Amino acid sequence: MLNLRIPGPTPCPSPVLQAQTKPMINHRGKEFGEIITRVTAKLKELFQTQGDLLLLTASGTGAMETAVVNTLSPEDKVLALTNGVFGERFAQIAKIFGANVRRLDFPWGKAIDPAAVRAALASDVAIKAVLVVHNETSTGVTNDLETISAMVKEFEKLLLVDAISSIGAIALPVDSWRCDMVASAAQKGWMTPPGLAMVSVSHQAWEAIDQARMPRFYWDLTKAKNFLERAQTPWTPAVSTFYALDKALELMAQEGLSAIVARHERVGALTRKGVKELGLSLFAEEAFASNTVTAVAAPVGVEVGKLLRILREDYGVVLSGGQQSLEGKIFRIGHLGYIYEADIEEVLKALEKALTRVGFSGAKEARIPSA
Amino acid sequence: MLNLRIPGPTPCPSPVLQAQTKPMINHRGKEFGEIITRVTAKLKELFQTQGDLLLLTASGTGAMETAVVNTLSPEDKVLALTNGVFGERFAQIAKIFGANVRRLDFPWGKAIDPAAVRAALASDVAIKAVLVVHNETSTGVTNDLETISAMVKEFEKLLLVDAISSIGAIALPVDSWRCDMVASAAQKGWMTPPGLAMVSVSHQAWEAIDQARMPRFYWDLTKAKNFLERAQTPWTPAVSTFYALDKALELMAQEGLSAIVARHERVGALTRKGVKELGLSLFAEEAFASNTVTAVAAPVGVEVGKLLRILREDYGVVLSGGQQSLEGKIFRIGHLGYIYEADIEEVLKALEKALTRVGFSGAKEARIPSA
Fold first, then answer.
1. Are B178 and B203 in contact (CB under 8 A)?
2. Average pLDDT for residues B306-314, to the nearest whole number?
3. Do residues B307 and B284 touch, judged by C-beta distance below 8 A?
4. How far apart are CA B168 and CA A198, in angstroms?
5. For residue B141, which phi and psi values (nearest 5 degrees)?
6. Do strands B330-334 and B293-297 pair parallel, antiparallel, or not at all (unpaired)?
7. What are phi and psi of B60, to 5 degrees?
8. Domains in chain A with CATH codes
9. Do A61 and B217 count as a contact with CB atoms less than 8 A apart?
10. Which positions in chain B touch A58 (Cβ < 8 Å)?
11. ipTM given for this complex
12. Chain B residues with CB inside 8 Å of A235's CB?
């Protein structure tokens, strides 16, 4: 079996995959009602929220669109913080639906500077909402969401968060960090196949939803909330994926959130240490390096496509390349969800061998012995 | 195991459920590329189209929204044909996204009258597109799409079709009937768990897409087509559901489309005959009664909720009630996808016993002996 180490879909434990084989049921019946009630309650615990938690049959991008179209009206001014592909995507969604998007761009690989966010908000009272990506999967940077939120809430703005590749693996206490909407997706930290996305909704977000006039039907959270009160979804849900998520959340509850977060911290640290020991450089500013995905700068002269192909075909290790302007310049190791130290040790061993084969001489020369 | 006879999710053959347990793979890799290429080709055969066929991670309503937002601009005039819940839904989506919706309403349980469609189109040159539901799941009526299409194409209008509960089970040759967009979803005739929706796109639809200005991001078909050229999807797809659909389409290819359609015709006829023999009345106009879902008028004095509960709890047969204004007035038997005569015989036997228990005296008295 391949060692799949991309930032999603992530590997699923066998009981999670097996859970999908249960027969179909009536999505308006009692049994599905019990599942959605249990899944919602468990997700609220892991989101650390007393607010609402709604599930959508979609991938994570659908949850980002949901956050935008439910809380905003055309012409609303939003501040979009960008430092990678997913920050760009969030800004683009808002723009397409008619928001007046003010961008605050940071270099890819660097973290968002909360002071700059504060300055932007101080200079423009018209801003209604701030869009931010917690964990920028494209660059391996985890933004300082807690501090950014403090800035946003000093000005009482709405805070919409893409936490697709963070929450459930990296600490994100939704209520104490006062995030109004937080989007995630099953195929990330949740160890579940893709097909379900989730959004948390604060009281302040519901107030915005009541006023918001962007068109929405499939993503309509008012409908989703009304149906959830009857333990249903407005549209036919991905039933098998619900079975899988239910099982995955049971496994996560057994481990406990703090143990899960600590495991991701250990695995993230091990990945960064190992990569540096091979003589490679991290792409992300290390103080903000993500514990769910590590972006590695491609060494001079190493063709990323060839390296990834050798890793996959000869060593069974599947990594991701860079996206958009980072294509060919970085590669990425996903380490979220169902991930342990041994998985990363296997990746590092394969990487060492594959690097030698693509002519990377720094692999041995620059290697610093492990402590 | 329950005999699940609702109009979706429909039961899945065991190999389809089992296919979901394959490990996750890179959705940007070769193996997923082979799957989406194969699934798309097989769907095009069953849609009988040389046009494009695109898959979305969503339920069927997402595919309806996709058809609207990709081909229309705000203020565009559309003619929405309605004779049930799903026709209403299609009209509502168009209205929410700013279309100028002219409605042509027909009584629920009756078929759409193509002559009335022709008259409406003749009287209003401003109409750009026609929205129609092929098989109205809420009432058990299959509209005469072939004739309606002839009317629509006489005026060269765009024809957007909800075929969610028909195509793959009821004949719908997309190209020869000149349907511009046809929406369906995995959990209907396709014998697959919910989580994937599909839309076919004609050449005329692409011309409309190029001009259309309704906002779209997740549903953007231009992106979907561009990614399909690389054998990918723009956003992370429901990988397990792709595994399942791949297997289900293999089974469908073994049976062959004409045999599948004939099986649904036999099962539909058996259902209607059996229901009438029990002394019950069909809700739908019989000449247009659907071969995938049968709506039965609730006999006077019979509480539908109680009847369905007895069927489910004591006989293991799961049927659906009526939706919206039909709640309590009808119940519905789904017979699409993985369905054979024996399944319906079991439903009819259970129904006979349960009807007696809820005090329906017509069950024996009105019974006409089987031929």
1. no
2. 97
3. no
4. 31
5. -110, 130
6. antiparallel
7. -60, -35
8. 15-254 (3.40.640.10), 256-365 (3.90.1150.10)
9. yes
10. 57-58, 62, 218
11. 0.96
12. 59-62
pLDDT value of residue B313: 97
What pTM value is reported for the model? 0.97
Q: Is A111 exposed, middle or buried (0-12, 13-18, 19+ CB in 10 A)?
A: buried
User: Which two structure tokens, joined as six digits, stand for A95?
Assistant: 């723009």
Flag if A57 and B59 touch (Cβ within 8 Å): yes
Distance CA B23, CA A12 (A): 7
Cα–Cα distance, A317 to A353 (Å, whole number): 12
**Interface membership of B98 toward A (CB under 8 Å):** yes
Q: Is the pLDDT of residue A367 over 50?
A: no
- Does position A43 have pLDDT exceeding 50, yes or no? yes
A116: which 2 tokens?
């700059």
Instruction: List the Cα angle B36/A56/A111 in 5-degree steps.
Output: 85
Q: Which residues contact A332 (CB under 8 A, 6 or more apart)?
A: A6, A7, A137, A140, A293, A294, A295, A296, A319, A320, A321, A322
Which among A11, A23, A240 is the nearest to B24, CB-wise? A11
Query: CB-side exposure of A155: number of CA atoms within 13 Å?
Result: 22
Closest Cα partner for A283 from A176, A69, A136, A132? A136
Nearest to A58 among B218, B241, B244 (CB): B218
Pairing of strands B141-142, B135-136: antiparallel
The arithmetic mean of pLDDT across residues B93-121, rounded, is 98
Contact B23, A12 (CB under 8 A): yes
Following CA atoms A252, A255, A256, A261 in sequence, which dihedral angle do they give, to the nearest 10 degrees? -90
B311 touches chain A (CB under 8 A): no
Q: Dihedral sign, CA of A48, A52, A57, A61?
A: negative
The H or E element that residue A248 is part of is helix A239-255
Gap between the Cα atoms of A25 and B66, Å rounded: 26
| Token pair 């062959």 in the structure block, residue | B256
Asked if residue A236 lies in contact with residue B9, where contact means CB atoms within 8 angstroms, the answer is: yes
Burial profile A273-287: b = 16 or more Cβ within 10 angstroms, e = fewer: ebbbbbbbebbbeee
* B residues 246..275 contacting A (CB < 8 A): none
Are the Cβ atoms of B59 and A238 closer than 8 angstroms?
A: yes
Burial pattern B268-305, b for ≥16 Cβ within 10 A else e, equals bebbbebbbbbbbebbbeeebbbbbbbbbbbbeebebe
Amino acid at position A215, single letter: P
Tell me how far apart the alpha carbons of residues B271 and B293 are, in angstroms, rounded to a whole number.
9
Radius of gyration of chain B (CA): 21
Taking the Cβ of residue A18 and every Cβ of chain B, the question of whether any pair is shorter than 8 Å is answered with yes
Encoded amino acid at B251, one letter = L
Each residue's pLDDT tens digit, B225-277: 999 999 999 999 999 999 999 999 999 999 999 999 999 999 999 999 999 99
For residue B41, what are its two tokens? 């080709």
Q: What residues contact A212, with CB distance under 8 A and at least 6 apart?
A: A69, A70, A71, A72, A73
How is residue A110 annotated by DSSP?
S
**Chain A contact for B304, CB < 8 A?**
no
**Nearest to A85, CA basis, from A202, A25, A23, A165:** A165
For B214, the closest chain A residue by CA position comes to A97
